[in-house]
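Please discuss these two lines.
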Amino acid sequence: MALAISEQDRRIMGDRVVIDAKVTFSGTYPAGGEALAASAFDGLIQIDSCIPHSQSAAGITVVFDSTNTKLKVYDENDTSGVEAEFSGTCTINHLVQVTGK
């Protein structure tokens, strides 16, 4: 799977940059999540935080793994109601807010 990032807004807050972006996952989702590099955002050298916003689709949740700097996708199993990490092929659009410098 690959991440395509489209910046929607960029602003300065103190000594940090805050970026609102649309992240599109496409292809086969890698177990353990998709790496989110600071270099994917023009001029950013480190990611301090990433806040995923609205749900992409029914039952899909995106979370930021700050330890490994990855975005992880979880899919609620409709039959059991248990949320598990996504597996397989998909296209998911999601909004995130990244803060860094």
In short: The chain has a mean pLDDT of 88. The two ends are 27 Å apart (CA to CA).
